[in-house]
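FORM 7B: Structural annotation worksheet

SECTION A. Query
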Amino acid sequence: MTKHIESEFKLENYNHEWPKIFLTEKTLLQEALGSELQAIYHIGSTSIPALAAKPIIDMILVFDNLDMIQAVDQKLIKLGYAPARKMIIPHRSFITSKKLDHIGYHLHLYERGDPQINRHVNFKEYLIEHPKKAQEYQQLKLTLKEKYHRIHDYLLGKDALVQAIDRKAKLWFSTQTNHFLQPNTGPKASEWSLEKMMTCMEANLNVHMTHFAQYINDVNLTRMPDYTLVNSNLKDDTFNYIIRADFDEQSAHQKIKQATDYFTSRHLPFSWWISPADRPQNLGNLLQKNGYVNTENNIAMYLNLDDWHTNIVMPKELKIVRVQDEKGLRDFALVLSNDPTAFSTYFSWVSQIISQEDPIEFYVGYVNNKPVVRGLTCYYAQVAGLHWLSTCPEERNKGYGTAMQEFRLSRAQELGYHIAVLQASPEGYALYKKLGYQECGTYKEFKLAD
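SECTION B. Predicted structure
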């Protein structure tokens, strides 16, 4: 039976006044925020000619960094906006809104270099340049409007097509431009608080674990207010996981069951990772009461790159290269893998969508053309996150892991980063301490008991 849509949820035919309304509000925002505002974009359906849309002007506001969010928030409140709140997409990204007469305004606040900026802008530009795909998107929206009563169901109904368009837009945009990863402009290490360090580390890990997932057709990425879920449909829990839990203890049993049932009903192995910022604080105990066991604990660590100086001693037989094509990423995958088929498949998917402007770089170290060591770096939230350092078991204790780590630290310095972060496994802990890393927390992995 067709459901009636809520009165506050409506789609309107394209209105030629929407771009003018955006320009008027853009001027007000620029005058209010001044030099703090780096760029502003009109996004969403009201920015795409001939597309039906909710009468809401969506805008992205780009800042060099959002350390000053409280001051920005106060200026926006004076313009009639509600207090900014955090978005479920990671790091210090915020959203606020206001309603005037028959038009609404949504502001999405991001730091410069956030990959979500390109995702939204590419989506818009792609649909403008591909009107047939825009009409397909519009027809889906109209169908969903008639089918669903709740805005939540309407948005979920768009997810699959939005992800498909995101992928096409990313690939299309990468052929139109020659953009590269932007250098960091964040503060020096001496200006960082431990709280900011932990916030940025968590955000960096979140991007590392979700960035490519949002563009891969075979992967389901679900961002909810309560948690983020990634399902690759592969039979390896390396690529299926739950992260960023944020709910209260009273609803914990329900949320845990909901997320658990998602994977168990599909007969997929998965992990639940808990960061120091996850809520409730006793989530680990609650998971154990629901049949989970704590399988791994990794130490959160950071390095002050402003004080890090070394002459990299590269083993003469080792050649480290950045990889982006399918062969190189397959080499990356197979340096060390639980399931070679799952690892090869996943990184084959990544090879189909990776571009120069992604915030993640993959490196492989070769000896006589054999991949022996690997590592990736995620540049996000003003920190360089060094992840996935692995050496072939038969090639360990030859200095290859140290060389790969120092190589990536040097690259991070070149890009202007002042802080490097990682989550150390028990096997890698000694190396990181030797390089000067400091401890600042623990990340815990949980899996369902057999």
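SECTION C. Observations
The mean pLDDT is 92. The CA atoms of residues 257 and 405 lie 39 Å apart.

SECTION D. Sign-off
Analyst initials: ____
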